[in-house]
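Hi,

I'm pasting everything inline rather than attaching a file, because the server keeps stripping attachments. The sequence lines come first, and each chain or strand is labelled.
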Amino acid sequence: MKGDLLTVKNLRVIFHTYRGIIKALNGVNIWINKRERLGLVGETGCGKSVTSLSIMRLIEEPGEIVDGEIIFDGRDLLKLPESEMMKIRGKEISMIFQEPISALNPVFKVGYQIAEAIAHAENVSMKDAYGKVKDALEMVGLDWKRTMNLYPHELSGGMAQRVMIAMALVTKPKLLIADEPTSALDVTIQAQILKLLDELIKEMGSAVMMITHDMGVAAEFCDKIAVMYAGNVVEYAKTEEIFENPLHPYTRGLLKAVPRIGRSEELEGVPGVVPDLVDPPPGCRFHPRCGDRLDVCSSKKPELVEVEEGHFVACHLFHGGVRT
Amino acid sequence: MEYQESERISRWRPLIEDLKHTMYLWRKNKLAMIGTVIILGFIIVAIFAPVLAPYDPYQQNLHNRLAPPSREHLLGTDQFGRDVLSRIIWGTRIELKIIFLVTVISTAIGTIIGLISGYFGGAVDEILMRITDMFLAFPSLVLAMAFAAALGPSLTNAIIAISVITWTVYARLVRAETMKIKSTLYIEAIRALGAGTFRILFLHILPMTISPILVQMTLRMGTIILTAAGLGFLGLGAQPPTPEWGAMVSDGRLYMMNAWWISTFSGLAIALVVLGFNLLGDGIRDILDPRLRR
Amino acid sequence: MKLWYFIMKRLFLMVIVLFGILVLVFFIAKIIPADPVGALLGGNAPPELVDELKHKLGLDKPLIIQFIDYIKGALRGDFGISLKTNRPVIEDIKEYFPATMELAIFAIIIAVGIGIPLGIFSAVKRNSFVDHFSRIFSILGVSMPVFWTGLLLLLLFYYKLGLLPGSGRLELFIIPPEPKTGLIILDALLEGNWEAFWDGLKHIILPAFVLGYASSASIARMTRASVLDVLRQDFIRTAKAKGLPKRLVIYKHALKNALIPVVTLIGLRFGSLLEGAVLTETIFGWPGLGRYIVNALLVLDYPAIMGGTVFIALIYSLANLVVDITYAVLDPRMRI
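And the predicted assembly:
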C-alpha cells in the first residue's frame, strides 16, 4: 500500500472537545502515485477533510495528530520542523477549498493575494511576483487586467474558484489537494471548473487528491477512488472497479443511493446514522448499519487488505484476502 | 389512555433536555456562576433589607459623625452620623427599583416601536428609525442628564430619563429580528390563514423575539446602574436623604481626605453589582453562542 | 468613486439627524413642564420681574416663533447668552471645549495604547497569564463607575501620596503657553515651554487614565474577540496553506480584518468618552465642556444647556461619521 508520491500510513487524529475526545481518524491508509488522480469520497464527517489537512499539517488545537506516517516524496512530513513544512505548503503541495470567496482575504485585492503566493513559493520579491500574476490569471481564463484589482466579494463563485486554482497551480505543485472544489458552485460552473482543472493538471503533471461527496464528480475526474467511513478508508480501487464491482457493504450502499442513467431500480439509502465519534462502535465502525455483519465485526477492526489486484477492502467478509 | 400518556411525556421531554443542557453549561461557566451568585445576593439583600440592616438608614447621630469603620459600624458613618452599611443595604432596594422600572419601560417602548418598524417597513420604518437615530445621536449620559434636569431632579424623573435613552437598543434589536421573522414561511402561512396584523405581531412574532430581548436586558442592566449612579452622583437622581449609591459617593467626596469610607464603600457596592450583571451577561452570551455551532 | 458617494450619503443623513437633534433639544427645554423663570428667580418674585425676564429670554413669544428663532440662531452658532456667565454661550463653548478635547485625546491614546496590544496578546496566547489578567482587567474596567475610579485614584495619588495634582490643568504659578490650538500640552510643546509641558502632563495623566480605563477595557475585549473570530475564518486557513509563516499570517492577514470592528469601537468609545468626561471633569475640576454643562444643568441655565448639548451631539455625530467612513475605507465590503 505504497504510492511513489505520497503514502499515508496508520494516521490517527483526535479532537479534544468538552464532550470528550473525538477519534476522528482511526488509522487511515491512503496513497497516491505521481500524476495520479485519487478521489476521496464519503459522507460528511467521515474524515476526508481532516485527512487532507493532516497531510498539509494544518491540524490545530483542539485537534492533534497522534500517530502515523505521512511520507511525501521520500520524507515523513510529520517529522519535519515547521520551517521546512512551510516551504512545502503552497509550493509542492497546494490546496483549494470549498467556498472560494470566503477562502480569500476580503480586505486584499486578488492580484495581491496571488502575488503573495508566488513571492513566497518562489522566493522572489513582491514586485517580481506581480509580473507573474498576469500569466496565472490567463492560465485560468480570467481577464487579468480587471480581475487583479477586484476584491474577493466582487467575484462570482466560479471566478473566485478560478483565482484559487491559479494561486494553487502557479507554483506547479507535485500534489494538488482539492477539498470539494465544486460543491458550492452551480452545476454548469461545476463542469467548467472541472474541465479547467483537468486541462491544467495534465499540463502541470501534478497528482490530485480530489475530495468530494459527489460520486459523479469522482467518476468523471479520478483514476482511483478511496471510500472513507467514520475515520477509516474502507475501500480503495480503480474508478471502474469501484462502480462495477464494489465490495465493501458501505460502498455498495453508497452506489445504490446514486441515481444512474440506464438503471431503473429504486434509490435506497443506507439505513442508520453516522456514528458518534466520541464513543464509536467497537470493531468495524460500520457494523451497526451493515446488513452482512458477522460476529467478529463487533470486536475486531478490519484492516485494509488487497483482495483482488489493485483492489483493497477493509472488511471481515473478505477475511485474509479471500472472499468468504 | 396509555398512548396519550406517552405522547404528553414526549412533548415535554425535548424542552426539559434543552433546559438541563442549558443548566449544565451555566454551571460549567465559572464566571457566569459568580455573576449569578452576586446578583442573587443583591436581590436577597434587597428583599431582606429591613432584617439585614443594623441601623435605620435615615437615622442621624450627630455625635458620631464621620466615624471610621468599627465593630458598631462596620463601614463607618457618614457626615450625619448615619450608618454607611445600613444605607448601602437599603440602597439595594432603590437600585433594584430603578433596574426593574427602566427595563420594563424601555423594553415595552422599544419592542413596540421595533415591531411596528420592522413589520410595516417603508415610510413608517424610516421615520421611526430617524427618530431612533436622533436619540442615539447623543452620548447617553448627556441626554439622560438633560432630561433629568429638565424634568426636575428626582428618582422618578431619573428613571424616566434613563428609560428614554435605553429603549433605542431594544427598538433596533426587535426591528432586526422582526424583519428576519416576517419573511419566513411560517408567518406567510399564518397570514394566508387570515390572521389580523395585531394577532400576528403579538402572538406570533413577539414570542420569537423574546430570547434575544432577554439577552440584551441582562447586558443592559449594568449600564443602567452606572447611568443611574452617574445621575445620582451629579445630583440629578434620587434626592437626599434617600440612600442612592451614586448620591452617596458624591456626598462622601467632600470628606475624602479624612473619611474615605463613605465614597469608597458606596462605589464598591455599585462596582460589585455592575460586575455581577456583566459577568452574568457575558456568561449568557457565551452559553447561547457556541451552542449553536457544532 | 464609490467611496465618495458613500461619504456624501452619510453627510446628508447626518444633516437630517442634526436637525432632529435641534428639535429634540428644543423639545426638552421647552415642552417638558418646568418653569425656567421660576427656577431662576425663586417662587416669590414680583410679577413685573417675572415678565421682564420672560421678555428678555424671549419666552413670551408664541412657541413656534421661539422655535424658528432658535433654529435660525443655531445655524448661526448663536445659542443666546448664558444666564450664569452672561456671555454668549458660543463663547463659553469656545473656551471650554479645547480642554475636553485634550482630555479626550489623551484618554483615547491611553485606551488604545493599552487596549489593543492587550487584546491581541490575549487572543494569540490564549489562557496564558496575560490573557487572564487582561480579562479581569477588562471586566473590572467596564464595571467600575468612572467617578468612583477617579475618586479612588485621587485618594491614592493626591491625598495619600501627594504625587499628582488634584485639579485643574496647570498650577497657578506656571505661565501658560500661547493658546494656539487650545490644547495646553501641545501648545507648550510647540512653544518649547517645558515647564508648562511637564506640569500639564502631570495634571492630565490622572483624569485621562480614569477616562481611558473603561474604554481600554472595552477595546481590549473587543480586540481579543475580533482577533479570535478572524483567526477562525477560512481565509486564514488558505493563508497558511499557501505556506505563509505564522507571524505574517497573524500580523498582516488577520489584523487588518480584526481591527475593523475595533476601529468602529474606538469611534463609539469616543462618544462615550464625552459622557465620561462629564463625570471625570467634575471630579478633577477640569475646566471643560462637561463640567460646564453639569453646572448649567444644576442652575437651569437654559441657553447654556441647549447650546452645550447641541454642541456635544454635533461632535458625537461627527465622530460617528468619521467612524463610518473609516470603516468603509478599511473594509471594501462596506462601500454600499
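Residues 100-170 of chain A form one domain.

If the labels don't parse on your end, tell me and I'll reformat.
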